[in-house]
Amino acid sequence: MRKPKLSLHAPAEHIISFTSNEGPSDSFLCGQISFSNVPLQCDIQVTLARVGRLKQGKDVNDRAGSKKFIRELGFMGSQKEQKWEQFDYDSAEKLSGCSISPPRTTSDTKPTKCDFRLPVPSYHPATAALPSVEISYAIFATCDLPNGKTLRCRQDLGVIRKNGKPILLEPSRKVSFPESTLVVRASFDAPIMGTKNIVIPTTLQLHGLSLPSTSSMRTNETRWLVPREIKWEFEETAVLITGFPDSTGHVPMSTAQRVLKKRRLAAGAEKLKLKYPFMRPGNTFVRMLQDDNGMEIPFHISAPKTTQLGDSTALSVAGSHILHTVLLSDPSADAELPQKRFAVYLEYKLHMWLRIGEDIFDEASGDLVNRKMDEMAYTVLCPLTMQHAVPAQQGAGLDEAPLPVVPPRYDGVWELPPPGYTTYGCALRGPVREARGSPQP
């Protein structure tokens, strides 16, 4: 008898789509199995399996994390051996499966082909290759032969969570600062998905820039807080929840451990050229507010294309248990304990630092009359969360839009100090001082 053979033919990727307000719906992965010289009494098991691993390491940026991940996979020499070692069938978590019986009429010369369909629940997390977490999927076809040997083939599968609706980000709350008239608010347009990165059109709305006159000023002079530079950092936080399942098969929240893994995905700066009046030709483009007391500054934030802004993989909790966790493939150190399980979800934040000085202008000519030596660095933190409700009135002002998100806290210790600012050879400039904001009620 000829040597039995098995092969799988299925899509390389499976997309879990979001099409309604109720969230994603369960779907099926359809494919085909091809086999030859398989005994009629031997059924073929087709299984969707998953491997989850947690990796130890320091926080790194996106590019360094990608290189480190490639080195850890060891894609040198025999790729096949490396991949099989990474995805062990026996230790993998079996998610769904079906059985295929060879038909009675099979050809001795041509392979027999049979279709299969595997259910894919909507709560499965996407394939992940983060510096701290790895989640991978594969389809296996297994057949136990009469001679005691096992015939097995495998195909890797990428699971993608895709939001079919436009991604809309919540604007920040108004943020005020101690001993300053400045009030800041950030808003975001729909992200633009490029071939290499994601671009988020951002608008900073600055109130309280026009300052009252002092006794030393002339009647034709005006005093302003003038933005000089905007620096930003795009931060990703992987929230890892680990724990042992109890008799329900789920992880109790009372014994679960929570770890945060942060990394900087992108950073940038916008140097502003603003002479009075601020909308004059040659200036950085700004829009003056209706009360003539502030301005809006549009600019772009960029992030890697792999950023998962709208995949809706929030932590699933029912009662006192965490649901839909991933089996940790590494064996437990204590044989009497069950294998650990974990859940991971991603949070994104935008750190912004505004360097602002104080200038006095001649109102008629726009010439600079005086510049205060001290400058201030104002710090703003914006959690990037999705809008769950579209405002009823389109085109309404930012002050009228609903704000269901909980405002961020600014009274804690910062993870990183603000980045340094470039100094210029100007005798009128003094030291830069920092101010942190607080959300207004």
What does this structure look like?
- The chain is mainly beta and 441 residues long.
- It has 2 domains: 5-163, Immunoglobulin-like; 175-439, no CATH class.
- The chain is built from 2 helices and 27 strands.
- The protein has helices at residues 62-73, 79-86, and strands at 5-9, 13-18, 27-36, 44-54, 93-100, 112-120, 128-129, 133-144, 150-163, 175-176, 183-188, 192-193, 197-207, 210-211, 221-243, 251-252, 257-271, 287-288, 295-304, 317-318, 321-322, 326-327, 341-362, 368-371, 375-383, 432-436, 438-439.
- Strands 14, 15, 17, 22, 23, 24, 25 and 26 form an 8-stranded mixed β-sheet that branches. Strands 10, 11, 12, 13, 18, 19 and 27 form a 7-stranded antiparallel β-sheet that branches.
- The longest helix has 12 residues, at 62-73.
- The radius of gyration is 29 Å and the shape is elongated.
- It starts with a strand and ends with a strand.
- The model is unreliable at 59-84 and 389-430 (pLDDT under 50).
Give a brief rundown of this model:
The protein is mostly beta strands. The chain has helices spanning 62-73, 79-86, and strands at 5-9, 13-18, 27-36, 44-54, 93-100, 112-120, 128-129, 133-144, 150-163, 175-176, 183-188, 192-193, 197-207, 210-211, 221-243, 251-252, 257-271, 287-288, 295-304, 317-318, 321-322, 326-327, 341-362, 368-371, 375-383, 432-436, 438-439. The N and C termini lie far apart (80 Å).
Key terms for this structure?
441 residues, 5% helix, elongated, Immunoglobulin-like
